[in-house]
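Ticket #4471: structure output looks truncated?

Reporter: J.K.
Steps to reproduce: submitted the chain below (279 residues) through the standard prediction queue, then opened the result file.
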Amino acid sequence: MPSDITSAGRLTLAPLLAATVLLAAAPATLATFPGHNGRVAFHAATDAGTEIFTVRPNGRDLRQITHVDGDARMPDWSPDGRRIAFTIETENSSRIAIMNADGSDLVVVPAAPGTFEGDPSFTPDGDRLVIDRFDGETGALWSMRLDGSDRRITAASGADPNVSPDGRRLAFLGFDGAPFGQALFTSAIDGGSPTALTPFSFNVGFKLDWSPDGRRLTFIHNADFAHPGESANIATIRPDGTGLRFVTNYRGGDVNAFFGSYSPDGRWISLRLEDHGRT
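Returned output as attached by the reporter:
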């Protein structure tokens, strides 16, 4: 099964071993669902805008699979690896689209006029998406069927929703304004009992993921460089907020690591590495 990453630049696969930190491999996702490792999906800038590509984990067989008007961003694989949900952004709109894994049969999901929708995450049964929805005044997390029907509000606020592999929990970003304002939260799938796993000072970035066994969440620390002179790094934590570990430990701000996703076998992560301004 595939994996995804949503940042442009050099795409790297790294074993879950950094310094002395080792994450337990899952037995044979947003969430990464358990399965066999397959192609990696990511978005990257082109002369015609941002598009979605797939590539083998060894970096070979790169394929551009979207050619949209606007920017194609935030791809998420279906649990069976056959489809990809993603966001199409234009100057005046943001919509959810779904396509086959090779880019064929692209369908844009209808949305109410004046709303902006993005950041889709499949549920484990593959029948629904959890999305970030903004109506021009307020933002919330919603759940819907793949055709856009049966829409339900899931959480009153948040962004970058990610459904746990067992379908019971939701991970997302919560905001608290300047100067840092971004923390990792979890809640019940219906939005109940929201819990902050990190302080807002962690400046948690877009792109988080559950491990395929559901035992850990991985995220970006200092993603927007809210702490000047400090690097962005990848960290992991248990869903109850314990067991914080840093997978990368770059210092000084010149080298930064941005998380992509877990591999379906739980042994690897995809990431984007910036080294003195080069990716």
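Triage note (M.O.): checked the attachment and the full token line is present. The mean pLDDT is 86.
Status: closed, working as intended.
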